Amino acid sequence: MNSKVIIFFLLAVAIGASSILVYWYYFSKPTAFPKSDQLVEKIQRVFPEASPNVIQDTVTIDERHRFVPFISKEGKYGVSYWQWEQHKWKVVSISTTGDIHVWKIDNNDPSTFYFIWNFHPDDRVNQLKLYLIRDRGYHGANRELWYEPRIQMEKLVEQKKSYGVLKMPAEWASSMNGLLQVGSTEPTGLFNNGITLNAGMYFGYIPYNKSGQEARTIHSVNGSSFQMGNFDHEYVRQLSKPEIE
Questions:
Q1: How many CB atoms lie within 10 A of CB 34?
Q2: What is the domain count for the chain?
Q3: What is the pLDDT of residues 108-149, one digit of tens each?
Q4: 130 and 74 housed in the same domain
Q5: SS3 track for 150-191
Q6: CA 52 to CA 242: how far, in whole Å?
Q7: Hey, which residues does 148 pair with through a beta bridge?
Q8: CA nearest 207: which of 245, 161, 156?
Q9: pTM
């Protein structure tokens, strides 16, 4: 065997080994998710301010994403977000507040978005109305004027537990995709990369108590948070009835 053959053989072996290693590191199937005591230990180590005490549940978003609501030693109701990355489960965000956020698994695909929350029981949230809203407005460029009508989509959610997960409704995702396609043809630059949409479009919610009155979420909105790595989310604004048409 001459030297060139040996070199090509060793190169092929190195490439094959590297490919296997890359697949193992980035694309291998997730291992079993950590147990509750391990989750408490990990949250405490990464973000001591969270002071976790009880893991309420482990909610599967998809194969590589988990939502873990918890109760702290001080009685706060918090949330944690977990992703399978680099061949291990990582906690990418922890918060001691439970107000609603949208977790964007793939920022370019609204069908992968999830509403996440964990309201403190003292706030007595019995029902949620979630909204996708775009305010009406006018935009102009090059002596042309565009009118944007108001968009308002509503989703009613009955609150059975303190925490909840809701996948983005299909009709909402379809509307957002449609707006992005329209926006990509606009010369005004109103639309950015990813699902940021324009400044007039946002998610909102109104919480209601058992009596049908707007609930005050004072126990669920004050706290601290931590995040790291590849984690994309959006705050959901709390609205009031006068803001809804």
A1: 19
A2: 2
A3: 899 999 999 999 999 999 999 999 998 887 767 777 777 788
A4: yes
A5: CEEEEEEEECCCCEEEEECCHHHHHHHHHHHHHHCCCCCCCC
A6: 38
A7: 137
A8: 156
A9: 0.82
